[in-house]
Specification:
- The chain is mostly helical.
- Helices cover 44% and strands 6% of the residues.
- Strands 1-2 form a two-stranded antiparallel ribbon.
- It starts with a helix and ends in a 6-residue tail after the last helix.
Length: 70
């Protein structure tokens, strides 16, 4: 079972996995109110833990090879 942090839409893990899925650059960020809702929180305002969560989501998706087919 996934942790609540990993399930939350717009959270750092979710945004990292989405960026990897769409083959976007590694750019830590998240949305506190859900995906694309509220202020976008960028890396300079993130904690080290949040940046690590983003990286985990990005790396997990890369490792799975789950990418958008265009």
């Amino acid at each position: 079972m996934m942790s609540e942090k990993k399930e939350r839409h717009g959270g750092p893990y979710d945004r990292g996995s989405a960026d990897s899925y769409y083959r976007r650059d590694f750019e830590p960020h998240y949305y506190p109110l859900g995906s694309y809702r509220g202020e976008r929180i960028c890396e300079d305002k993130m904690t080290n833990e949040q940046i690590m969560e983003y990286a985990e989501g990005y790396d997990d998706n890369d490792d799975e090879g789950n990418f958008k087919e265009y």
